[in-house]
Amino acid sequence: MSEFRVASRYAKALFTMAKEQNVLDAVKDDMATAADLFAGETALTSILKDPLTDAAAKLSALNKVFAGKVQTLTTSFFELVARKRRANALGAIAKAFLALYNEEKGIVKASVTTTVPLTEKLRADFVAAAMRISKAQSIDLIEDVDPKLIGGFVFKIGDLQIDNAVSNKLNVLRRSLITR
After folding, report:
1. What angle do CA 132, 137, 138 make, to 5 degrees?
2. In terms of CB atoms within 10 Å, which of 82, 146, 153, 164 comes out highest?
3. Positive or negative CA dihedral for 161, 165, 169, 171?
4. For the segment 25-45, what is each residue's pLDDT rounded down to a tens digit?
5. Which CATH class is domain 3-103?
6. What is the reported pTM?
């Protein structure tokens, strides 16, 4: 079974349990921490992805990192995933869980890349624009600074990208001059 299908099924199960036990927000925080941790190449991710490491060793590694820091449900879930030999998919499971949470709460992720850090007014303008475009209840705005843009911005909301960067406009102009 593909990692996507595994992640989706386990994430849905955890989501349902967290909702039933009224610990959805706390488990979401646990999964956000896990997603950040599993995104990088750490000793923990190496252990979890190693097919030669047995389930008990993977569970022990997870307990060392998360013991006492996450909800009881999250700890039980990690134990289940390790026992079922799916610990290598925990990063994907955490991302799938966060996507379910965002969908449930009406949160849409948006990102903006500019040449300088955003002011409070610009940040509010981008959030307002993202809310109008996506019709979301809430926007999770990720900001990035990239001086290579020269000026302008690149704004992404879901699959939509608005590229108003000077560097992009210069590239378009250069390509049109070359083709003529």
Report:
1. 90
2. 82
3. negative
4. 999 999 999 999 988 878 888
5. mainly alpha
6. 0.79
